[in-house]
Amino acid sequence: MADYKPGDVPLVETDERKLFCKFHYKGVLILLIPLVFAGLLAGQPVLVFRFIYLTICLYLFYILNLMARGAVAFIYITFIPIAGIASSGPVSLAYYPDLLFLVYGTIMMGAVMDSSRLSEYLGFSIISIVGGSYIKLQFVLAFVVFIISFLVDPTVGAAFGMKLAQAVVNEYDAANIIRKDSEEERYEVGAVPYPTRPAIGIYLTCCYISSLAGSVSPFVNPNGIITEYNIKIQHIILIMVMPCILGICIVILWLQAMFMGRFGGRVRRDTAELAVNLPGFQEAAANRRNALGPWNAYAIIVLILILILFVLLHTRKPQLYIAWENIGNGLELGPAVPAVCIGVIFFAIPANYLFCRYYVCREPEKPGTTPSLLNWKALNNNIPWADIFMLGAAISCVFCAEQSNFYGKVADAMTGHERLDVVQFLCGAGMGTLFSALSPSTALAKIALPVLNMAGFSFALPFTTALHNEVLLPISSPANMIVAGWGNIRPFQFLIAGIIPSFLIMLLTAASTMICYDMVVPKP
């Protein structure tokens, strides 16, 4: 397909008026949505309703894919200062917190896994276990991602699992077991193809399991931040263990039903037609693995550095023993520090032929200078810039809500006198789920939770536990964003995949929180 150039018409011209909606509905909605919700601007308090109005417009533009995601992301930075909510400087800084640099470091890890072919080596190891069954692949990925997310970090766990998933799916596609790319027409000329439903189901397993694993982990955020607000880590784990276990079962079954044809449907029929290619797949995969050759020095070094990254992140600030972050002058060292540090090392070694020759104890196959483990072109090809900008907007949403006093008004409305108010409890669970869908829970725990704690435990406790329900949108967590960017999964597909699991996990979390309420809340 020819690349789109300025001045070209990306859509076929037509005089048939009945095709108006097909070609022009997005332009109509871009004008209609701000007009429909304009009445909110008359609400009191003014700044709160201005924030709500801008937020509704931004997220509807994003979910309905009415504009390019990278452009939608800058609505806050443009209109929040105009609305008088916050100055442009603080809003700009809110787009780039340390959480975003953790994403950059994680993407560096994923990019170097591809450039060193480590993902292919590990992918063939997984194929030797699961064969040609993408249902078994889902379970193996869920196990790998859960362990890494629980011990290290959900963002890193999802990215590592996603690279393994892509490597295996590429082999399945080459063997014609499943199709990786759909035939759906792309919105932009020359854009990356959209994935098929089985591929989406496999990819979403990585980010959904990572969020659920983080909910019961004493080693990762937001649990580490939540413990700063009068809640012990053992209480968080006690509350979340049942929703985590049942949530994993719900997510796996739901993804199998909706995307992987487990219980019949069109996907099951399509994959059944391709099942004739399964008998010779293991032998073909073994031949491709042999053609790949033995592990090269690049893949070994990258694997060692990734394991070092895992250790650094695991020991950074656990709740169970003394962390290396606490050693020194007491300055906070977020997870972005080791992630970016290892990313810089990826660029630094090997530097040249002589250095490479001596540290791997053998001469390279081709004499001369060698590239570093990671180069900028490979990294740039792996960075989903539009999705990163949207994640920055989602983090800025939390900051702008605090600046408009939105959280303060919610806390005032939910302040009660009873020790356990059921209405406030349900409102806390619902709002926690909604807010965690719109923004990453780490940002919410840092900015929103201190304000909402003033409402009392009847609201704050279910709100806190519901922050782990990050499955509705790509911007609900950095893990979701990375998977969506690398897999080219659109927001509405996240909604389809996450709406039922999110609702059920919310109910499970609320029920578990209510059961443990008397054990967690300190006696007056």
From TrEMBL:
This is Protein I'm not dead yet-like. Signal peptide: none annotated. The chain crosses the membrane at residues 23-41, 47-64, 71-88, 134-152, 200-221, 233-255, 295-313, 333-355, 383-401, 422-441, 495-517. One of its GO terms (molecular function) is succinate transmembrane transporter activity. Belongs to the SLC13A/DASS transporter (TC 2.A.47) family. NADC subfamily. One of its GO terms (cellular component) is plasma membrane. It is found in: Membrane. PANTHER family: SOLUTE CARRIER FAMILY 13 MEMBER, SOLUTE CARRIER FAMILY 13 MEMBER 2. It comes from Drosophila kikkawai. It is a multi-pass membrane protein. Keywords: Membrane, Transmembrane, Transmembrane helix. InterPro entries: SLC13A/DASS. It comes from the Eukaryota.
